[in-house]
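Quick one:
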Amino acid sequence: MFSDLRKLSLSLGAAALLGGAAGSTSYATSTDSITPGTSASEVAPSANSGPIASDAALAETARAEACLAQTVCAVKERIRWQTPAWTPSQCRKIADAIETSAKRHDLSPSLLLAIMVNESDMNEKAARVYTHSDGKVYAKDGGLMAIRCILDEHDRCTNGNVRGIAFKEVMDPINNIELGARELAHWRDGGGVMTKTIVKRDDGGHLRRVTKEVPCQHKTHGWWAHYNHGPRYIDKGYARHYPHRIAVLDHALAQVMNMPAPELTSGAITIQDPGKRARTADRPMEPRYKKLCDQILTSHATCSAVALN
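Output:
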């Protein structure tokens, strides 16, 4: 597999120097939905839109894309378990999808890749089935980003941002990455809620304590916690440190790609347990995450310092 990585690195490096214009797609406009039968690649804006970039900027973009593809291949090889390795062309396809969706939704590519590692071990065919007591399937989590789909009788999703999409289309890796990015952006941009108690005067002039739902301010946790928790942050049990587990993967991936992960530098990452040292992005805690971070950092995917956006 590492010989394939060297071939991938060389081929993409040549593309960076000789054909940098291929990586100059502008994503000034975004797509609000994936309609049934339409892939994310089909709804992406034209590569000819936007101002013409300099040759140096194009070459840098192409080198960054080559780095991302190399990292995808190297990390996949390290963490896969009883699943086939990806070919260099498959790695490029996944990396292109990550890059496209990251730009469209203003997300770090390393965060998207961290979610992918955590949710599916980068297994595009991963699926978890939920059944009623009578054995009837009512929901599935599927694909690289473990997209939740509550099913109707026609195997279409009925929930949230995937409403109306066939589960088969959800499982397409390109669509799956785009749907995961859309979910992340949704929670970052006000999808999460919290309960706030205020004092207000009622019609009779008496002061009353009233609770209401307001947008979550993410004061105790990274906003990406809601990707797993839903509208409300779960501050108890194992789930409370989900954002930290994503953060350590994000940090390790950003390290090997020499790229910024701004979500890790502003605000809290996870709730602090009383009497214990605060969890930080550079310090994995649970055995699985210590192992995953070690696999990422020893994946031979280290790239030169270039920006991906």
